[in-house]
Amino acid sequence: MAVDLTLNTVLLHRTDLDMDLQENRLASFAQWPLTGNCKCTPQRMAEAGFYYCPTENEPDLVRCYVCFKELDGWDPDDDPFKEHSRATDCAFVQLGKKEREMTRLDHIKLQCERAKNRARKLYEVRVAQIDRAQREVKHELNKAAPPWSPLVPGNVAGLGANTAAVPLIAIVMLMGPVVHTTQGINTVARGIAEACKEMKRVRCCAE
Fold it and tell me: How many Å apart are CA 21 and CA 146, to the nearest integer?
C-alpha cells in the first residue's frame, strides 16, 4: 500500500520518516514523469534531498525531507540542486554533502533540524486552519442570523430585549483559543445558527 505523503499526514504522523535515506527518496520517484535526458532525473532529485509526493493538482510535487520546502512545475532543464539552494536556511543545503560523505553526527544534526522545521510547519498549518474555520463561522453567522440579531456585526450595541444572544456572542469571541479543530468550530457554528433560527421563530410568535 502506498504511503500517504500529503503534508498534513507527514506533519501529524511523520510518514516520511524514512526519507532521510537517499535510497528511500529515490524509490518514491517510481512514477516520476521526467526521466531520460534531463537534469531532474529521479536519481538527482533524491540526491538533492527531495522525495516525490504528488497530489491531484500538483502531479510533480516534491518536498525536502529536512526543511519541508515544496516545489512543483518542473521542466526538464531544471536543476534540483540549484532549485533547492534557494532555500538558504535549509540545513541539508548548508551541509552540502552527498550521503556517502555524511558522518553519523551530520545525520543527527539534520534530524534535529528536521524536527524543528516540522514543529514550525505544523504550527503554521494549524493557525491557517483555525483562521480559515473562523472565517467560515462568521460567514455562516451572517447567513443564518436574522437582520435584527445582535450576532450581526453592528447590532451588538442595540441588544434591547434580545439578551439571550449575549452568551452566543461570548462563544464567538472566545472560540478562537478554546476550539482547536475545524470539526469543533463547525459544531459551534451549527449550534449558533440553530439558536439564531429559534430566536427568529420566537420573535415572529411574539409579534
Answer: 58
Residue type, position 55, single letter: T
CA distance 144 to 105: 58
Phi, psi of 103, rounded to the nearest 5 degrees: -90, 170
pTM (2 decimals)? Answer: 0.68
Lookup: cell for 13? 504522523
Q: What is the Cα–Cα distance from 6 to 27, expressed in whole angstroms?
A: 17
Are 35 and 42 contacting, i.e. CB atoms less than 8 angstroms apart? yes
Using one digit for the tens of pLDDT, what is the confidence trace for 52-67?
A: 999 999 999 999 999 9
For residue 144, the model assigns a pLDDT of 64
Q: Which helix (H) or strand (E) holds 98?
A: none
Cα–Cα distance, 29 to 22 (Å, whole number) = 11
Q: Please compute Rg for the chain using Cα positions.
A: 25
Q: Is 54 helix (H, G, I), strand (E, B) or coil?
A: coil
Q: What is the largest CA-CA distance in the chain?
A: 82
Cell digits for 198?
429559534
Q: Give DSSP secondary structure letters for 107-120.
A: HHHHHHHHHHHHHH
Which residue type does 45 have?
Answer: M
Q: Cβ of 111: how many Cβ atoms within 10 Å?
A: 14
User: With contact defined as beta carbons under 8 Å apart, do 174 and 184 qualify?
Assistant: no
